[in-house]
């Protein structure tokens, strides 16, 4: 028997070329191949009379060959073979292009099972190149359920199916990880049966049962992994924070915190008094005041003799946090230190000396915080901002700098509870569902290209009033195929043709990090009127003077991404606006974009985005730490998710520490899943 870890090249018919094609699908080993599951199935078990065949709907039917196939040579490179077949209900002409050998296998007077679709040109009377089998042959392409796989260039469905059949014939499928008691309780197929049935089901019902098992399995693995993380975390001990008096902190604030902020801080205080490391997510829309909640947590850590570290995804965001937190906490006698990669060697050396010596109490920085050169004196609290920009490994690297420090995770991306359970299932959640008083919602409008003169006039009006504008494009460079607004070209057009008297700057993700930071900093300081950018500004610096955002080809973005972009404006005292442009006339697309115009509630938008697009596109092109599921679909399989979470909790209670074969195999699969999830961030 072969091993699951063996390369697919041991299979017949898979040489270097085929192996490269499979590699494009991330299939390298026999296990990868067996776990390369079908996208859907074609049910070829039901036979339909010829007269009941529908145009362009593939179906199976039984018919007798009514004449000898005849081939006509039309021109060089084109032969057409025609043959008539019939059943009790009607006749049908079959046409084969350049398939003389195939067609001539059909024998006059003999019955066959055919699978194909009648064409719309000769309704009910013509079918092109159907597959067929004799009645007395083994059912390979008809009379069975056929899996249809994800493919890539040069790789046919038939070649994938043949490879999978070979793999299942020479090695055992992945071992069982779900205990028998749980399988019985939730009506789940055993692993061996499920892995065979997902690829070669005897019926659609069996295919669905296999799919249910594999969806449950993926959720069970991930939920069990999170439960194990929680159980390990619960065993850790940390000193109880005795000094939790926040009166001095509250008195230093120039405003009153919202009820949601006070509630979140109360939950943090309770965590800090438990004697175990805090693991908490603070989730809320842009502008909901997460930074002040983080500042309160840092203040408490420092009052209890600990250091606090805040990691941001960009240098400019780190500098923004450093400035605002210094202004708030320095008068309270707290030393705030900045550490970023672009600082000079001397600046970084002095910063690290103060961190290691303990004189720096709150350290704000980027990935420089997790480098080996950064050593903390007494790290007690780790704060990560815009958490979906980091992988689990980066989070762990920073917490590893201290002795089981408390962890506070912040996310400005409203996440449906379903996704939050999976992305942050190892964390407790605090939700900031209020905006500070005085912050007005951003008015949002959807228009087409006919509004271009009015858009340009409105940009001019905003600039004349001393404000700034963002213009967001979905592409960096022009592409004739996609026909999208490209940032480089559009910035040039705006500067040279539309607004020659205004200051237009360009920012996109292909620029070097230092260049991006410089441009964003200059825009923030008022050195430009219009910033043409890609989604690189989705997480960026706070520019209160920016009051207008124009998003070109808005239909190319997800709702949650549009909402994140919109959050870049409306951060100052002046009324702000967001204009979505789209020439797409699709009804569903327009309905989706109009939904954004009707609400500024990020959680409602996130739920709608998950429903419409699924989790794979929820954060755009990056998977953002989401687990890599092969079968499960979060927008469709919620009941199975809940069942698997309950089952995994039961397993942890009863068998989590046991060394049963299922438990050992489950821990191995948990490690593999988390490794794949972390790999999406690299």
Structure description:
- The chain has 22 helices and 22 strands.
- Among the domains are: 46-143, Nucleic acid-binding proteins (OB fold (Dihydrolipoamide Acetyltransferase, E2P), Beta Barrel), CATH 2.40.50; 443-599, P-loop containing nucleotide triphosphate hydrolases (Rossmann fold, 3-Layer(aba) Sandwich).
- The chain is an alpha/beta fold and 682 residues long.
- Mean pLDDT is 86; it is low at 616-625 and 678-682.
- The radius of gyration is 31 Å and the shape is globular.
- Helix 13 links the parallel strand 14 (379-384) and strand 15.
Q: SSE layout and pairings?
A:
Layout: H1 16-23, H2 30-34, E1 40-43, E2 59-65, E3 70-75, E4 78-86, E5 91-97, H3 100-103, E6 111-116, E7 126-128, E8 131-134, E9 145-148, H4 157-170, H5 180-186, H6 191-199, H7 204-235, H8 247-252, H9 259-272, E10 279-284, H10 290-303, E11 307-311, H11 315-329, E12 336-339, H12 345-357, E13 362-365, E14 379-384, H13 392-399, E15 406-411, H14 417-423, E16 428-432, E17 443-447, H15 452-464, E18 468-472, H16 487-498, E19 504-507, H17 513-524, E20 530-533, E21 546-551, H18 559-566, E22 577-581, H19 587-598, H20 602-613, H21 638-655, H22 661-679
Parallel strand pairs: 5-7, 10-15, 10-16, 11-13, 11-14, 12-13, 14-15, 17-22, 18-20, 18-21, 19-20, 21-22
Antiparallel strand pairs: 1-9, 2-4, 2-6, 3-4, 4-5, 6-8
Helix pairs in contact: 6-7, 7-21, 7-22, 9-10
